[in-house]
Amino acid sequence: MAMVTETVEGTRPRLALVDGFGLIFRAYHALPPTMATKSGEQTNAIYGIAPMLLDVIRLHHPEYIAVALEGGRTFRHESFEGYKANRAEAPDDLVQQIGRVKELIQTLNIPIFQQPGYEADDVIGSLSRSCAASGMDVTIVTGDSDLLHKGLEELGGYLASLS
Asked: Would strands 112-114 and 137-142 be described as parallel, antiparallel, or unpaired?
């Protein structure tokens, strides 16, 4: 995990676990698709997620921060034929921005956790329980209110938005 600030003596270290695609989708839909570079590369998701990540650091002062991303098709897709069958595919103009979003996250020196066969929710659940058990205060940062109700109620939650 990326070290953001120093821990105050006598307090538990704080970890912010960010649901990457939850924030990416929120940023993409919050800003107009007309945001683009001179060469025409659409940037609304990229531009939108940057202040969200910086707000997490500014408002929550975590000592550690990490972003979880989807790892592609999951074991659930293999087990349940209709898993997410009613969910629309991500728009092409959003998918085209994912590489740049990852570059931004890496530029901010924030590690990305992405496990093939698992969703970001799975990664966040595993990391949050493990880190909490080792003595950290964990805050889950997401744009998906459902994630905050998946058996992780004892951990802190923060529903991110563009302000």
From this structure: unpaired
CATH superfamily name and code, 12-159: 5'-nuclease (3.40.50.1010)
Mean pLDDT (whole number) for 74-102: 77
Report the C-alpha gap between 31 and 9 in whole angstroms: 40
C-alpha distance from residue 144 to each of 75, 118, 159 (Å): 21, 17, 7
Greater model confidence, 91 or 78: 91
- Other beta carbons less than 10 A from residue 115's beta carbon: 16
Give the Cα-Cα-Cα angle 65, 75, 89 (nearest 5 degrees): 75
Burial 2-18 (b: 16+ CB within 10 A, else e): bebeeeeeeeebbbbbb
pTM of the model: 0.81
Q: Is-contact 162 41, C-beta < 8 A?
A: no
Q: How far apart are CA 131 and CA 26, in angstroms?
A: 26
pLDDT at 135: 92
Whole-number average pLDDT of the chain: 81
Question: Is the predicted pLDDT of residue 82 greater than 90, yes or no?
Answer: no
Q: β-strands 14-19, 156-159: how paired?
A: unpaired
